[in-house]
């Protein structure tokens, strides 16, 4: 087997996690699923997309395009045009069609981008992707074909009250050098629900400009859609930035539609990689949402319906958390500013977060152990924090989420009591 085959057969990171979650869901025991990143099934979005689907199905020309045409490797042209117009109208970014490419989910875009900007360089040496702040999205971890694709930096921790904290980029520790091929952040961040401030993004952008490398901003949960942001944050783009968006978290994960907005030479490289990997990107997601993008409804749907729905879920979950934990043991939640996760931290947890995950799984509650979310940060054993956290998804129904949180609180209290 080649090194390539070996890499993809390994049961590491995202692969073993998805496998474990899948098996637990397929067992006979009832489980509360707070582990994945699946969006909730939100009736207003489903209703609206069902109407669009019926319109497409009634129009023979649309059906022919929907199933009978390979698009160009850059993606479905009408959707790209409509999105370019919408973004220019809304933010004044001055995009042309050469600035946008579509991929089969944004996960595929990250695979291509990381290997465009990290790995062996033609003139010798290797480039890496610098993740300015751990924790970061576990889906990046195995996406580099070469070794040591990522390097990452510990955050600063600000305590906001007795049970709430916020990570901040530690610019004093963020050392760039010739080996850094790109910076990458998720905003909002999976797993923490953090939203990097405009100031942090501004400083990262200035660093990217100074080193003439791209700043990749993963907006899978962010602006302009699905807009799962519960704090003040401005969307930002210029040609130094590679902005990655997705239709998944709006409610279409099965349509596998990722969107990349970048300088034309990056879009050309990405389209070339896409042609080799996929020939063309699937056009189901783009065609289904084309009218919503053309009219701008995708923005109002996100802002006025999807965002408040998740924000209400988040507030309910946080209230349950305070009620269930009380002051019985040390616990913190990262300030939930976006996405669909609570990031819980138990300082001094007597067992590892992975053992806690196993104990919760035995009680029918599936979460994700926090230790997965530190790609590129060497585990020198000197930072217990990375084994003291859990990621909990609150996208499913409120009752199950509340029940799951109560079980988590009970189990954590038992751990601290030595049980
Ligand atoms: N980026 C982040 C931060 C995510 O959480 C996910 C999925 O969970 C993705 C990217 C990839 O999503 P998709 O491939 O469905 O667009």
TrEMBL record:
Q: Which keywords accompany this UniProt record?
A: Aminotransferase, Pyridoxal phosphate, Pyruvate, Transferase
GO MF terms, alphabetically ordered: pyridoxal phosphate binding; valine-pyruvate transaminase activity
Q: Which GO terms describe its cellular component?
A: cytosol
Cofactor section: pyridoxal 5'-phosphate
Q: Name one GO biological process term.
A: alpha-amino acid metabolic process
Secreted among keywords: no
The superkingdom listed in its UniProt entry is Bacteria
Q: Name one Pfam family in it.
A: Aminotran_1_2
Q: Does the keyword Signal apply?
A: no
Do you know which CDD domains this protein is assigned to? AAT_like
Aminotransferase class I/classII large domain ranges (all copies) = 65-408
Concerning PANTHER family, the annotation shows:
AMINOTRANSFERASE, VALINE--PYRUVATE AMINOTRANSFERASE
Spell out the NCBIfam families in the cross-references: PRK09440.1-2 (NF006964), PRK09440.1-5 (NF006967)
Q: What is this protein called?
A: Valine-pyruvate aminotransferase
């Amino acid at each position: 087997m080649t090194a390539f085959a070996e890499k993809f057969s390994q049961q590491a990171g995202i692969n073993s996690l998805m496998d474990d979650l899948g098996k637990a869901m397929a067992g006979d025991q009832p489980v509360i699923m707070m582990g994945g990143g699946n969006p909730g099934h939100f009736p207003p979005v489903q209703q609206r997309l069902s109407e669009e689907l019926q319109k497409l199905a009634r129009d023979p020309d649309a059906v022919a395009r929907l199933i009978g045409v390979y698009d160009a490797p850059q993606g479905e042209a009408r959707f790209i045009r409509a999105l370019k117009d919408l973004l220019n109208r809304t933010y004044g970014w001055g995009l042309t069609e050469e600035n946008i490419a579509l991929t089969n989910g944004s996960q595929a875009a990250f695979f291509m981008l990381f290997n465009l900007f990290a790995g062996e360089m033609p003139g010798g040496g290797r480039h890496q992707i610098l993740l300015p702040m751990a924790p970061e999205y576990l889906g990046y971890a195995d996406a580099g074909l070469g070794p040591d694709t990522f390097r990452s930096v510990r955050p600063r921790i600000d305590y906001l009250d007795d049970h709430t904290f916020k990570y901040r980029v530690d610019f004093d520790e963020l050392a760039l050098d010739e080996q850094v091929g790109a910076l990458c952040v998720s905003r909002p961040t999976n797993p923490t629900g953090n939203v990097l401030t405009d100031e942090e993004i501004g400083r990262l952008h200035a660093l990217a400009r100074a080193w003439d490398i791209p700043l990749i901003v993963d907006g899978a949960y962010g602006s302009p859609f699905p807009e799962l942001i519960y704090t003040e944050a401005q969307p930002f783009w210029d040609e130094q930035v590679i902005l990655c968006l997705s239709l998944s978290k709006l409610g279409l994960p099965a349509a596998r539609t990722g969107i990349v907005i970048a300088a034309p030479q990056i879009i050309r490289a990405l389209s070339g990689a896409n042609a080799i990997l996929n020939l063309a990107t699937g056009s189901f997601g783009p065609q289904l949402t084309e009218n919503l993008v053309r009219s701008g409804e995708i923005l109002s749907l996100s802002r006025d319906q999807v965002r408040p729905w998740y924000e209400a879920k988040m507030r309910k979950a946080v209230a349950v958390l305070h009620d269930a934990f009380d002051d019985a043991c040390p616990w913190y939640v990262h300030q939930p500013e976006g996405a669909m996760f609570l990031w819980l931290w138990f300082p001094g947890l007597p067992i590892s977060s992975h053992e806690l995950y196993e104990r919760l799984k035995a009680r029918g509650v599936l979460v994700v152990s926090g230790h997965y979310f530190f790609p590129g940060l060497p585990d020198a054993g000197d930072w217990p924090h990375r084994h003291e956290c859990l990621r909990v998804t609150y996208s499913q129904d409120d009752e199950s989420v509340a029940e799951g949180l109560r079980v988590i609180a009970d189990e954590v209290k038992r751990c601290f009591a030595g049980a």
